[in-house]
Write a structure and sequence with these properties.
- The N and C termini lie far apart (about 55 Å).
- By secondary structure, the protein is of the alpha+beta class.
- The protein has eight helices and nine strands.
- Strands 1, 2, 3, 4, 5, 6, 7, 8 and 9 form a nine-stranded mixed sheet that branches.
Length: about 260
């Protein structure tokens, strides 16, 4: 977590009145959403210590969530603060969800901003190198000894998408399909309990017989698309499974489709 001078441009002097922070988020599979590629889902933060020995408590982010949703932005690599250039402001948050020690952010990227379009292109191309980082100013920090500290109060004003997250565990956790708490909420809303899928329960949580798609990710997107009405027929289902290279799930998921529309 770096420090900014109390001026317009960061020079890394460490003499600012407020302590700026850039904190990490964990990692998730990236898959392009053919329907709405400008909606992104970020696994934004956890309470792990980053490479600089600091962590941000989820409670600190919960306390700031309302303010962040009203005034916060999504940036590219925090560069709008460092350069003072608004071209690095690429979107804004739409929702924040919390589960255990993890913070999830749903955001909307701006279609007419070149750098936002660049990120969409990377995600649609299958990029797995992008991560996320929360940004703002530390208000209170608890020293834990041996160069470790936890941020317990902060001003949260941005979430950055970056190719160099402070914590490598955050790499790959920028997605165009619902993840984490969002996927679970959508699944519940559509009446689909992903845990009841015998095919999914029988497979490894890491992959689907050679496919790069994780079970939880696939089931979350399937439930979401059912709710959105994107999958209504067996042909729609076949297209969805072919797209994810898992056509062998047709039999299992066909039962769910029939249950919803018949």
């Amino acid at each position: 977590m770096g420090k900014l001078k109390d001026c317009k441009v960061c020079v890394g002097c460490g003499n600012c009145k407020k302590t700026a922070f850039y904190a990490p988020f964990p990692s998730f599979l990236i898959k392009a959403d053919k329907k709405d590629p400008y909606t992104v889902f970020l696994e934004a933060s956890n309470e792990d210590f980053d490479d600089q020995g600091e962590s941000v408590l989820k409670k600190a982010l919960e306390d700031e969530a309302e303010s962040y949703l009203r005034k916060g932005i999504i940036s590219w690599d925090h560069l709008h603060k460092i350069t003072g250039d608004p071209e690095f402001i690429i979107g804004e948050p739409q929702d924040v969800q919390f589960k255990k020690d993890t913070t999830f952010v749903k955001g909307r990227l701006y279609k007419d901003v070149p750098k936002a379009n660049g990120i969409v292109s990377l995600l649609k191309s299958g990029c797995t190198r992008l991560g996320a980082s929360i940004g703002g100013y530390v208000r209170e920090k608890k020293e834990l000894g041996k160069a470790l500290a936890s941020v317990i109060k902060l001003i949260w004003d941005e979430t950055a998408i970056t190719y160099k997250p402070v914590n490598n565990r955050t790499r790959g956790k920028v997605s165009l399909i619902p993840i984490g708490a969002f996927a679970k909420a959508l699944a519940a809303g559509s009446g689909v309990d992903t845990a009841s899928f015998t095919g999914g329960r029988a497979m490894s949580p890491e992959s689907l017989q050679g496919s790069a798609v994780k079970v939880d990710d696939l089931m979350g997107e399937f439930a979401w698309r059912l709710q959105q009405g994107d999958i209504k027929t067996e042909e729609d289902l076949s297209d969805f499974l072919e797209y994810h290279n898992v056509p062998f799930l047709q039999g299992n998921l066909k039962k769910v489709l029939i249950g919803k529309y018949n």
